[in-house]
Design brief:
- This protein has 3 helices and 2 strands.
- The chain is of the alpha+beta class and 83 residues long.
- The longest helix has 12 residues.
């Protein structure tokens, strides 16, 4: 078991051996869930480019607004768009 300390800014450092064991990378998100014993952290990784490549190709057409591009990307990431 490893310990870490909460900083005055509310931040914690995850020890290197835990980051390595969980293959945590910069940009990975952790969802914190409060439970009877304290809390649980669940890793929510951003999808890799290779996982969403081609799913929002239509968003790059001339005349497409930034909002349409963002909606297409977010839909692709969430798996809501099929090419």
């Amino acid at each position: 078991m490893r310990h870490t300390t909460l900083s005055s800014k509310g931040q914690v450092t995850i020890p290197a051996e835990i980051r390595t064991a969980l293959d945590l990378q910069a940009g990975d998100r952790l969802r914190l869930e409060v439970n009877a014993d304290g809390f649980t952290a669940v890793v929510e990784r951003a999808p890799k480019v290779s996982e969403v490549r081609g799913r929002f190709r239509h968003a790059a057409r001339p005349g497409t607004t930034r909002a349409q591009e963002r909606d297409a990307f977010e839909g692709a990431v969430a798996g809501k768009h099929t090419p």
